[in-house]
TrEMBL record:
Cofactor or coenzyme needed: Zn(2+)
Keyword Metal-binding listed: yes
Domain Alcohol dehydrogenase-like N-terminal: 27-154
Any one Gene Ontology molecular-function term assigned to this protein's record: S-(hydroxymethyl)glutathione dehydrogenase [NAD(P)+] activity
GO biological process, one term: formaldehyde catabolic process
Cellular component GO terms, alphabetical: cytosol
Any matching Pfam family: ADH_N
Top-level taxon: Bacteria
Matches recorded under InterPro entries: ADH-like_C, ADH-like_N, ADH_Zn_CS, GroES-like_sf, NAD(P)-bd_dom_sf
All copies of domain Alcohol dehydrogenase-like C-terminal, residue ranges: 197-323
Protein name: Alcohol dehydrogenase
Length: 367
């Protein structure tokens, strides 16, 4: 069949919305008609600097939609099911079978190349292959081919078009708090960089019952949004040293927990140094590989921990329903950070996301 997809043909160029062919799905695969899909900074990184051989490619990995076809081996999904798409994992390796699929041994091959693990792709244009399995979905398209494992069934009465970011960015921030840090009620936490990932971490800190929630950013508008969503304190680190400010807010001790949501070496260091002893910093920000940072070893020796987190340390089939349940209860209003654009406005949406004009851009589809 044919579908319409936004294709990146070369580095730093506008995406071209054009028709492509979808091959017949495999036994374990599912064809999803998209309702919405988020724009993540991981996508923007590929647009700016794709790896050799990584174009042409269809990006997008925060999709949501309706199942239209299932392969012969699929048992958990049926046509008509509403699903949120998330990262891909093999389900067979030692890490997958012990409940940490975010550390799948084939994570890089299944998510970061744009092809299936065997090197094939479900998309073609004029007979030539188009990479169409970015994060196992390539959902900047009207249809996506995914596996049963990375399509999470959700209730049909939810606003499907805005649920896609639950599968990556929002899952990453919220999971870093609820799954990795697990802060105790009444504790203090500082969140560095309050874009969509940081705001998701902030909402999760409220769910966890943190008493002191400090948002740190250089953009005043984001700090104001953080305050509206529940931050008890804000720090503009362009105007004041964040480590000093956090110590003042916490009575000189530092925060019990911190979350770095940008990955810049200076920010990771500040997040670590803002901790009290003992304390834990979770870093989820991504600035590409390699990304060397320098820290004071003494910060670790005296009881501070720095831990890296991928995809919020989440098991998507459990954590996405949890976030939705909290949303239904009014305790996790992630929708307040979303601005929608028509799919055909994808380049406008990318530009807005790139320049920080929106917190979380989501593309929607008119069927």
């Amino acid at each position: 069949m044919k579908t319409t997809a936004a294709i990146l043909h070369s580095a730093a160029s506008p995406l071209v919305v054009e028709d492509v062919d979808i091959a017949a799905i495999a036994a374990h695969e599912v064809l999803v008609e998209m309702a919405g899909v988020g724009i993540c900074h991981t996508d923007l990184g590929v647009i700016a600097a794709p790896a050799e051989g990584q174009t042409p490619i269809v990006l997008g990995h925060e999709g949501s939609g309706i199942v239209r076809e299932v392969g012969s081996a699929v048992t958990a999904l049926a046509p008509g099911d509403h699903v949120v798409l998330t990262y891909s994992f093999c389900g067979r390796c030692d890490n997958c079978t012990r409940g940490i699929p975010q550390h799948c041994r084939d994570f890089m091959g299944m998510n970061m190349t744009g092809a299936r693990l065997d090197g094939t792709t479900p998309l073609r244009k004029d007979g030539a292959p188009i990479l169409g399995s970015w994060f196992g979905q390539s959902s900047w398209a009207r249809h996506a081919v995914v596996t049963e494992r990375n399509a999470i069934k959700v209730d049909n009465d939810l606003p499907l078009e805005i649920l896609g970011p639950l599968g990556c960015g929002i899952q990453t921030g919220a999971g870093a708090v609820l799954n990795t840090l697990e802060p105790r009620p009444g504790s203090s936490i500082a969140i560095f960089a309050v874009g969509s990932v940081g705001l998701a971490a902030l909402l999760a800190a409220r769910v966890a019952g943190c008493e002191t929630i400090i948002a740190v950013d250089i953009q005043q508008s984001r700090l104001e949004q953080a305050r509206a969503l529940g931050a008890t304190h804000t720090v503009n680190s362009a105007e004041r040293d964040a480590v000093e400010a956090i110590r003042d807010i916490t009575g000189g001790t530092g925060a019990e927990y911190t979350v770095d949501c940008i990955g810049l070496p200076s920010v990771v260091r500040s997040a670590l140094e803002s901790l009290q002893t003992p304390g834990v910093c979770a870093t989820v920000g991504f600035q590409g590989i390699p990304n060397e940072i320098t820290i004071d070893h003494g910060q670790l020796l005296f009881g501070k921990s720095l831990i890296g987190v991928i995809e919020g340390d989440s098991i998507p089939s459990e954590f996405i329903p949890l976030m939705i349940s909290l949303y239904r209860e009014g305790r996790f209003p992630f929708d307040k950070m979303i601005q929608t654009f028509a799919f055909e406005e994808i380049n406008k949406a990318i530009d807005a996301a790139h320049h920080g004009e929106v917190t979380k851009a989501v593309l929607t589809f008119d069927h």
